[in-house]
Amino acid sequence: MAEIPGWLTEGQARMLWDAVQRLPAGATVVEIGSHQGRSTIVLGHAARTVGATVVAIDAFVDGRLFGGASTRDLFEANIAAAGLEDVVELVVGYSTRLRPHWTRPFELLYVDGKHDYWTYVDDLRWSTHLPEGGEILVHDCFSSIGVTAGTLDKVLLGSRYRYLDRSRSLARFTVRRPDLTDRLRVAAQLPWFVGNVFLKVLLRLRLRTVAGWFGHHGPYDPF
Ligand SMILES: C[S@@+](CC[C@H](N)C(=O)[O-])C[C@H]1O[C@@H](n2cnc3c(N)ncnc32)[C@H](O)[C@@H]1O
């Protein structure tokens, strides 16, 4: 994973790995947003150890950030180099277009696709295919404004998802009715979110040195 560009930290990779380790043999993981395969390779190697498989969904969106068709080539080369072609199945398309027609059940959902409120909330609806107690991992939670708004709406105020924990911006939810304590634990993440928005404003204003005073180093938004 370390050789593949992307936004997943080592601690977050560990969290993905551990989530797959809790799955039974024959299980399926669905990943929305694979990019060059940094997270897919972690999921894929973990899946192999338990006898699971990974469905990687990506539209390979054009543009400077995600790179379009050439990113697909890199993804396929990275999966092949990792020896994971028999574990990882690539499905090319927009998650929001695929979801209404999807019928295959799966046991773990990893959401790291488009980060606006509407797409993220739609991506959460893939969890209708999860069993009760199934886990959902969400990247850029409490760092992206769209993902955080969706989390406040559907997790803090909703009745279907329970917040478990997080590694920086990688949050873990389960499909279970939340109680008041679960909701309060979501609210307790908001100061961290406010700090991240503050850092993003500094980065947009090109004040990287000032962001460094607050412990944020490098050009990327906090993740
Ligand atoms: C943040 S990157 C994923 C990073 C990846 N998980 C990793 O660890 O490197 C987001 C990816 O989602 C894809 N994407 C954006 N919107 C999408 C959508 N609606 N459906 C499917 N993929 C989408 C982009 O093409 C991009 O590759």
Automatic annotation (TrEMBL):
Q: What is this protein called?
A: Methyltransferase family protein
What Pfam families is this protein classified in? Methyltransf_24 (PF13578)
For this protein, the record's SUPFAM superfamilies field holds: S-adenosyl-L-methionine-dependent methyltransferases (SSF53335)
